[in-house]
Design goal:
alpha/beta; binds adenosine-5'-diphosphate; about 35% helix; 9 helices; P-loop_NTPase; binds magnesium ion; membrane
């Protein structure tokens, strides 16, 4: 089944969120289909990070529903911890534990949250590290790795939990330019491998090539959602055209 016809892995309807009197998300309705890569673009302050945080239940929406497959995450009494374990999140700042080895950073949640025996957790961690090209670094400390390598460890850490969906919030924005491409390559591999992903990014080249659809956020609204071809080559929305003229 291709992403265009697959069932939604993640479905958001009528999502709103305010901080005090400041409305940050306005009636967002969007889905991410199984196996799809949805890129979220838009100006700073448009609500992209808040949307991802709502998806991961790090923020509580004021209105609207979020469904992960058949599970209603915003239902009263929903098992938030169980839901979060199915969603991998990669932030701009990777927050690895400095006193643990790279391997332990990846395996810690497998032993502490999933209850795997230490040797099996290590095995899984090494496999995930191999996927991001870092198996040889397993026994180093994070401080001995470049920023780009550390971010790839953070991706391996999220993948180790076998999430249904991966969320990325500007995963490459804090990196030196020459380190960005290795992280994007890992993300491209994941997308090509059929992972379901929602990716907030300023990397328009990545959005153009790796996204199945691109969503443009503006003033807390999802202003446009379409194929990369239509977003980047044939945009009509004036706010989108203006945004693209600034970033391309
Ligand atoms: N915890 C918070 N408290 C108050 N305002 C917030 C909070 N988080 C985000 N905001 C505001 O919400 C708006 C959207 O922020 P954000 O989702 O971070 O946008 P983006 O990721 O698109 O740059 C901004 O105006 C920001 O200042
Ligand atoms: Mg943000």
């Amino acid at each position: 089944m291709t992403a265009a016809t697959a069932a939604p892995a993640l479905r958001v309807t009528g999502l709103s969120k305010s901080y005090g009197t400041h409305t940050v998300l306005r009636d967002i309705t969007v889905d991410v289909r199984a196996g799809e890569t949805l890129c979220l673009i838009g100006p700073s302050g448009s609500g992209k990070s808040t949307l991802l945080k709502c998806l991961n239940l790090l923020e509580t929406p004021d209105n609207g529903e979020i469904w992960l497959g058949e599970t209603h995450l915003t239902a009263p009494g929903a098992d938030v911890d169980a839901a979060r374990a199915r969603i991998g999140m990669v932030f701009q700042h990777f927050n690895l534990f400095p006193h643990m080895s790279v391997e332990r950073n990846v395996s810690i949640a497998l032993t502490s949250v999933k209850g795997l025996p230490r040797d099996r957790a290590r095995e899984t961690a090494l496999r995930r590290l191999a996927e991001v090209g870092l198996e040889a670094f397993a026994d180093r400390r994070p401080s001995q790795l470049s920023g780009g390598q550390q971010q790839r460890v953070a991706i391996a850490r999220a993948l180790a939990m076998q999430p249904d969906v991966m969320l990325f919030d500007e995963a490459t924005s804090a990196l030196d330019p020459e380190l960005v491409k290795d992280v994007l390559a890992v993300m491209r591999d994941l997308a090509a491998g059929g992972m379901t992903m929602a990716v907030v990014t300023h990397e328009m080249g990545f959005a153009r090539e790796a996204a199945d659809r691109v969503a443009f956020m503006c003033d807390g609204r999802l202003a446009e959602i379409d194929t990369p071809g239509r977003i980047f080559e044939r945009a009509e929305n004036p706010r989108l055209r203006q945004f693209l003229s600034q970033v391309l």
